Amino acid sequence: MFRYPSHGRALVAALGLFAPYGTVSAQAVTTDTLIVSLPGALSLAVDANPELAARSWDPIATRGDLRQASVLAFNPELRFESRAPSDGLGERYEAELGLEIEIAGQRGLRTRAAREGLMSADSRFRDVGRLVLADVARSYHRLVAAEQRVALLGEIEASNERLAAAVRTQLAEGEVSVLEANFVAVEAARARARAIQERSLRATAILELSRMLGVDAERGLRTVGPGAASDNRGLSSLDDALRRARADRPDVQAREREVEWARQVERLARRERLPNLRLAALATREDPLVDPRFGVAIGVEIPLFNRNQGVTDRRTAEVYTARAELGATETIVRLEVEDAYRRYQTASREVEILEGELLGPSRENQRLLDIAYREGKIDLASLLLGRNQLLDAERAYWDAWERRERALTDLRSATGAILEGVTFTPGIDR
User: Fold this and answer.
1) Residue 117 near residue 66 (C-beta atoms within 8 A)
2) Is there a contact between 236 and 408 (Cβ–Cβ < 8 Å)?
3) What gap in Å lies between CA 230 and CA 140, rounded to an integer?
4) Chain-centre distance of CA 218, in angstroms?
5) 396 Cβ neighbours under 8 A, 6+ residues apart
6) What share of the chain is helix, strand, coil (3-state, %, to 5)?
7) What are the residues facing 101 on neighbouring strands?
8) Which residues neighbour 23 within 8 Å (Cβ) at sequence distance 6 or greater?
9) Largest Cα–Cα separation, the chain
10) What angle do helix axes 106-172 and 380-415 make, rounded to 10 degrees?
């Protein structure tokens, strides 16, 4: 049995080297630090995300297309010809007021096509919002995990420094060997290096999330922490998730609208083969002594050479392309849902195992190591080995926690559930 002199053990115990690492203490923040929850972060992104703001004008532009499609295609045309201008413009002249009229329903088809385009643009804008919210959620969870790891390593770093100071005292008093003192110094240096790395990762996560939320990173940003359990309402089975994705994915809805747009444009191209009718009112005066004569002119273009053949072929190909793209999108959505659901189930089981079978025993081991060291039953090497085991367990837990939250975010994004209760306002100058 290995025993240290009681003076050394008491000194080490007095320095508080055996505080449990399972509970991460709160970080110190300045008074103007922005502290956000996940719902708060998503709300901020809806209002201030720069990418979302840039794309918010797409539906407004498409509304302009709809407005233009609903007006008459041709303006009235006024023609006036003076036969003898030297005698005065009103002595001998010919005047014509004409209008070209579409008689095959082209205006209605253009309007329906533009309306489908508008609905597609609205769905595309919501899909941009879906992707932005998913990125924000992933960044938020990345920052949460980074904060927890930084706090954990900070506590261990401080504990190692206290241990190193105590061991230096013991070394001076001859209670420990140089090898043991060096071993403690090495572990303290490793903890400092890990803490530096994790702080750098946290700083990167803060910058990334700040950019997505449209806030000044200099102000400081912090999350409220892990919070409650993950919300997977309505996604309890793969069939539920697939059914929801088919109903709620905005990119699928956009593809469906694009198929209908292509069909309407193809019909329009076929209708444009038919000639338009031209009506005109005439007024002619050949002699200053004779009253002007009035009449009506009717004209029809003869589609002899140009019958819109190439445009029709192109529009037909676009219908098949739109249908193929819809099928490809539905396949991608199904694969995304299946992959995210599988990863979420796997990560959830991993978190459960770590919580129930690894963290608990590891934290209990710290208490037992504390007692064993106080009683002189273990040496410093065994103590540091046990502490490293707990550190690895805690870090593994937060890695798994982040994977689970990321997988759930991917699943909620893949099904469109992340858009529940969210309203995007197009055309906002943020």
Assistant:
1) yes
2) no
3) 13
4) 23
5) 354, 358
6) 65, 10, 25
7) 277
8) none
9) 138
10) 170
Residues 289, 331: Cα–Cα separation, whole Å:
80
Two tokens, residue 219: 């102000």
> How does pLDDT run across 42-80, given as a tens digit for each residue?
999 999 898 898 899 999 999 999 999 999 889 999 999
Structure-token pair, residue 312:
């029709």
Q: State the number of CA atoms in the 13 A half-sphere of 261 facing the CB.
A: 21
Predicted TM-score of the model (pTM): 0.82
How many Å separate Cα 43 from the centre of its chain? Answer: 13
| CA-angle at 27, arms to 49 and 38, nearest 5° | 30
The pLDDT score that the predictor gives to residue 410 is: 96
Q: What pLDDT does residue 321 have?
A: 96
379-416: b (≥16 Cβ within 10 Å) or e:
bbeebbebbebbbebbbebbbbbbbbbbbbbbbbbbbb
Which pLDDT score, from 0 to 100, does residue 356 have?
A: 82
Listed residue (250, 251, 254, 252) closest to 118, CA to CA:
254
Per-position b or e across 164-184, b if 16+ CB within 10 A of its CB: bebbebbbeeebbeeebbebb
Regarding beta strands 277-285 and 93-101, do their DSSP bridges make them parallel or antiparallel, or are they unpaired? antiparallel
Residue keyed to tokens 């690492």: 21
pLDDT score recorded for residue 232: 66
Residues with pLDDT less than 70, the chain:
1-31, 86-89, 228-234, 381, 428-430
